[in-house]
From TrEMBL:
The keyword DNA repair appears for this protein: no
Organism encoding this protein: Franzmannia qiaohouensis
Membrane-topology annotation of the record: Multi-pass membrane protein
Keyword Transport on entry: yes
PROSITE patterns according to UniProt: ABC_TM1
Keywords: Cell membrane, Membrane, Transmembrane, Transmembrane helix, Transport
Gene: phnE
Protein name in UniProt: Phosphonate ABC transporter, permease protein PhnE
SUPFAM superfamilies to which the protein is assigned, alphabetical: MetI-like
Family: Belongs to the binding-protein-dependent transport system permease family.
Primary location: membrane
Length: 266
């Protein structure tokens, strides 16, 4: 008795989009076309851009290492800005995350206020924070550190609170049954379970902060960005390339170390 071969069903046809989806698609297409046309993209501009890019690299190569000591000090300052900002940002993110999480917030109203505050900190770009703090405390690394703290709180507090909401309630309920206080449950059950995730998120914040610290220097918030801005403004492209190479080495090194630590922790 022969067995019939299995019949292959054809993939289902795409369903006709609903009127709302069709309107959204048209709106997206209109925005895309409008944005593309406003960019004023023409072949001659692209060709001149390639020529100018070739001129830049022609003047930048070979890189000028005559000011390597100044660049190294500025790069160290950038790294220190990122580390200090992330450390304070992570420390402040933990209580904020406990207020944002559904299972640790003392009251729904406090949770709503805390979540909106974190969303505000996350929404404002770090460059805007740097401009605000440059006005507040003046030029220098302090403005950059404060900007990184704000950006880190907005980034870490969100992911910390989401991880806290995902914890297994069993250990916490067992501690509460033995008479442990609310803070005892948080310290004895919730935080230990979330620690690997907290460490991974904090390491991502370090990588993010180092890249941000480079940009923050362009508005006077200290670090290597000041050297890069000065070199570009003075058309010293060979020195600018040296700064770019220093940034590249530090960022790649930090990412590799961060990845190694995450593999050990998680």
């Amino acid at each position: 008795m022969s067995q019939s071969s299995p019949r292959h069903t054809a993939p289902p046809r795409l369903e006709r989009p609903s009127p709302v989806a069709f309107i959204l698609l048209l709106a997206f297409a209109a925005f895309f076309i409008s944005g593309f046309s406003s960019a004023d993209i023409h072949p001659d501009r692209l060709l001149s851009g390639v020529v100018n890019l070739g001129t830049f690299f022609g003047e930048a190569l070979p890189p000028n290492f005559s000011r390597w000591d100044v660049i190294a000090v500025a790069m160290l300052e950038t790294f220190q800005m990122a580390i200090v900002g992330v450390v304070f940002g992570v420390i402040l993110s933990l209580p904020m995350a406990l207020l944002c999480a559904r299972n640790t917030s003392p009251h729904p109203a406090i949770r709503v206020v805390a979540r909106n505050l974190v969303a505000t900190l996350r929404t404002v770009p770090d460059l805007v924070w740097a401009l605000i703090f440059v006005v507040a405390v003046g030029l220098g690394p302090l403005a950059g550190i404060l900007a990184i703290i704000m950006d880190t709180i907005g980034f870490c507090a969100r992911f910390f609170s989401e991880r806290i909401e995902e914890v297994d309630p069993g250990p916490g309920q067992a501690l509460a049954a033995t008479g442990a206080s609310r803070s005892g449950v948080v310290c004895g059950a919730i935080i230990p379970e979330c620690t690997p995730s907290f460490v991974a998120t904090s390491l991502f914040s370090v990588e993010k902060a180092i890249r941000s610290a480079v940009v923050l220097g362009l508005v006077g918030a200290g670090g290597i960005g000041v050297e890069l801005s000065a070199a570009m403004n003075l058309f010293r492209y060979d020195q600018a390339l040296t700064v770019i190479l220093a940034i590249l080495v530090v960022v790649i090194g930090v990412e590799q170390v961060s990845a190694w630590i995450r593999k050990r922790v998680i």
